[in-house]
Structures are given as structure tokens and as C-alpha cells.
Amino acid sequence: MQFVPKKIDPKVKERCVRLVLEHQGEYSSLTAAAEAAARREGLGKETVRRWVVQAQIDGGQRQGATGEELAEIKRLKAQVRRLEEGTAARVGDRGVRLRERPVWS
């Protein structure tokens, strides 16, 4: 198994996507085209295939969440996680807020 850096140069990504889209008709499937491009660039075939699918979604050729929508979802999930952690820190073992003010009747 080869080592692949976590961050791949965007130019390599664009080149792979372009290669697959331009030559997809020469292969039996999207996966086969992605595998050929991945082999040429020394990347994993599934990585390249996912890039192509996401490019098709972003281009409106396929249904799904766009890159911008996925980034927004990721940001919102992180925000919810931070808020939940903050709430958990203020709640005692029994579910009673530690800093709760007494209720005066």
C-alpha cells in the first residue's frame, strides 16, 4: 500500500477529474475511468471516483449536496458539538444546572 499525503494538490485533483470526465466514454464505467486516472497519478481509485462524483454534483449533473452545502453542514455540526459540550459542562450529574438560581415563590 502506498502512502498518500492527506492534502493533495488541487491541480492534481482538477487534472484527475478532467481526465475522467473527458475519457469516461472510453471505459465501461465511471469506476473504470477513475481507476485509470488514479493509476496514472498514483492515487486511490475510490478517491478519484469520489472527486468526480462531487464535481458532477457541484456542476448540477448529479443530485446530492454540493461542496458548499457539505462545508456548511460540517460547520454547523461543529457548532452544535461545541454548544452541547458547553451545556454538558453546566449540567450536574442529576441533570440539574449547577448555576441555577433558586426559585422564589
Estimated structural class: mainly alpha
**What value does the average pLDDT take?**
87
How far the N terminus sits from the C terminus, by CA atoms, comes to 70 Å
Q: Major beta sheet, specifics?
A: none
Task: Give the helix level as a range of percent.
Answer: 55-70%
Low-pLDDT residue spans:
none
Find the CATH topology of the domain at 10-65.
Answer: Arc Repressor Mutant, subunit A
Task: Please describe what this structure looks like.
This protein has 4 helices and no strands. With 105 residues, it is an all-alpha fold. It has a domain at 10-65: Arc Repressor Mutant, subunit A (Orthogonal Bundle). α1 (10-23) crosses α3. The radius of gyration is 23 Å and the shape is elongated. The chain starts with 9 loop residues before the first helix and ends in a 15-residue tail after the last helix.
Question: What is the element layout, followed by pairings?
Answer:
Elements: H1 10-23, H2 30-41, H3 45-58, H4 67-90
Helix pairs in contact: 1-2, 1-3, 2-3
Gist of the model:
This protein has helices spanning 10-23, 30-41, 45-58, 67-90.
Which characteristics define this entry?
105 residues; single chain; 61% helix; Arc Repressor Mutant, subunit A; mainly alpha; elongated
